[in-house]
Design a protein that fits this description.
The chain contains six helices and no strands. With 171 residues, it is mostly helical. It has one domain. Helix 1 runs parallel beside helix 3, helix 2 crosses helix 4 and helix 4 runs antiparallel to helix 5. The two termini are 19 Å apart. 27% of the residues are buried.
Length: 171
């Protein structure tokens, strides 16, 4: 395995491991690492495999739930958002993508809660109530995605400058 790929895998597995240590509710790097994987891996298969495998490994410890298919598909879509950053990773583009990824996840995951968990009536009012109830969770998710995106993208850009051998063939 190339040094670049090894470092990317290590960063993503390390970020996923943060799900297993005590943290504020929904303050995890998972959204950021899916975005990061899409933007950094030259091989698109690895861009999907590594963050989804990291999620699966941490879910084995945390526990499985009925919403996993929707959650995993949402993270796969966030990896695809990362593909849009592959050619040009500026602070503005990463921040915008992080905001979009966090918002996308909020909309999709809470729609799934409304549609499948039967916690809310399957009406427009039930959907609105579901989204309103989820706003406190979104706040931490958004801040975490922005924070960990800055750490992952910024840290890796710093490493690429210090160790030119880490640069992608597409950089």
């Amino acid at each position: 395995m190339k040094p670049r790929t090894m470092l990317l895998v290590a960063l993503i597995l390390g970020a996923a491991a943060l799900r297993l240590v005590p943290h504020p509710s929904n303050f995890t790097p998972i959204g950021a690492l899916a975005l990061f994987a899409g933007a950094q891996f030259d091989d698109k298969r690895w861009a999907f495999i590594v963050p989804l495998a990291a999620m699966l490994l941490s879910d084995i410890v945390i526990g499985f739930h009925s919403g996993m298919p929707v959650i995993y598909l949402a993270f796969a879509a966030i990896v695809c958002m990362g593909f849009l950053l592959k050619e040009k990773k500026t602070a503005l583009r990463v921040t915008t993508a992080s905001l979009a990824a966090a918002t996308f996840f909020f909309v999709v995951s809470n729609f799934a809660v409304w549609a499948f968990d039967r916690l809310y009536p399957l009406t427009l009012q039930g959907l609105v109530t579901c989204y309103i109830a989820a706003i406190p969770f979104f706040q931490n998710w958004l801040v975490a995605t922005l924070f960990y995106s800055a750490v992952l993208f910024g840290g890796f850009a710093f490493a690429e400058r210090k160790l030119p051998g880490l640069a992608s063939a597409h950089s």
